[in-house]
Amino acid sequence: MKQKLDFDNQKKKGSKSSQEISEHFISDFTLDLELVRKKIGHNSDVNFREFHIGGTGVCAAVIFVDGLSDKELIEKHIMKSLMVSFSEKYNQESPFVKGDISKEFIKNQILSISELTEVHDLNDLVSKVLTGSTALLVDGVPNVLILGTTKGKSRNIEEPVSEVLVRGPRIGFTETLSDNTALLRQHGDNRDLSIINFQVGLRTKKELVIAYIQDIADPNLVEEVKDRIKKINIDDVPESGYVEQLIEDNYLSPFTQVQSTERPDRVYSALTEGRVAILLDGTPFALIVPVTFSMLLHSPEDYYERWLPTSLLRLLRYFAAFISLFGPSLYISFVSFHQGLIPTKLALSIMGTREGVPFPAIIEALIMEVAIEIFREAGLRSPKPIGPTIGIVGGLVIGEAAVQAGIVSPFMVIVMALTAISSFAIPQYSAGITLRMLRFVAMFFAAIYGLYGVVLFFLFVCSHLVKLKSFGVSYIGPIVPYRVSDWKNFMVRIPLMMKKRRP
């Protein structure tokens, strides 16, 4: 067993060292091309096209990946330029001598490609070719030219599905990183908007950028974000959710410490407040840091409408969050322990509806809560045409059948329906998931200690939130630390002309 473990460790060390060893080109066309063939020639989608530069007889080759590279661009601006246009531009008065084709002549007068770099290492060439670029090898020319011919598959810019607004921009991020950064630039001429590029993933490398406004964002915050991104140690980062989990402060906390969004207007608004955005290639969800809990209950539409209706709607969201978290637990505590606190007529009505129900309030609530979560997940994962049907069948037919069978009381159905609807009123889906999860814990506290258990659970949550931070910022600011000026945009939204300072 020990020998087997040692052998596995040696294999891991060997594979790691083989990836780190750099192989340089030796400026010999035949040997360099053979080196590339041994490295990636076994892939059926990698094309090797050898030809002679027009009028010289010099050997050259282009290497590209079928489907990722733009063939039309390769044919018109690379191969045609070298095979046809070269002989027209090259100096025909002096006899051609093999090897006297200068690299600068090819770069500056022949190739009409905007993105052009040089590499002298095999691993760099492989990385560029496998992401859509084209490698050009020319006999007698040192190094290899990498030409930007990437032809990515992208969808059209559409309205975000997860953050729908009545009033506001109808554009959302896409899976193409260059499109997403362009959407940020399109907000206006802001020379202080900085976009810094990184690469994440050990085996599958992906582009990641952080965006911030130089004279607004705290330099310490920017450096902290950079350090955490540089410490990401994982083979592949398929979605920004991986980045979110790897850079958050406390992975044991049920509360999300990084805000995700599909809306460019939300991201740019956060940048103007001094926050930092993180965008990853291959996903439409951008990340915003640092985040406070109040941000998860705010909507971009709060600033597109007048302040009075917006303030009322924001207060309604806070109330919906409270109902979503404590609605079932308050029902359990009042019905099971504190019937005397319920008005007499209402208490008689509740007891009348519970007549014949064989389960205590906690079991009754768990049955309904688990059923609602199953219906919600089934409707979310089902094909789009039948998703609403599942919700209707689950909410109406099964709920009515449960009441008729005497398994749950009609009043419990009302409480659970109000709780489920309240969770949908929260703008951020991740915040809704957190409250739904903590709702079960609150229900057990209420079943054991009654109303005192609900208060005890609330104190536990508050103590956790007081200690929780997001990139050094208090998660429940401006409550802790107390800042009077930031309350202008906390639970209500004051008129825009009264907002003079950033949070």
TrEMBL record:
Entry keyword set: Membrane, Transmembrane, Transmembrane helix
Entry annotated with the keyword Transmembrane: yes
Classification via InterPro entries: Spore_Ger, UPF0353/GerABKA_families
Annotated transmembrane regions: 276-297, 318-337, 411-429, 441-461
This protein's record includes keyword Hydrolase: no
Family, as annotated: Belongs to the GerABKA family.
Protein name: Spore germination protein B1
Species whose genome carries this gene: Paenibacillus pseudetheri
Protein's gene: gerBA_5
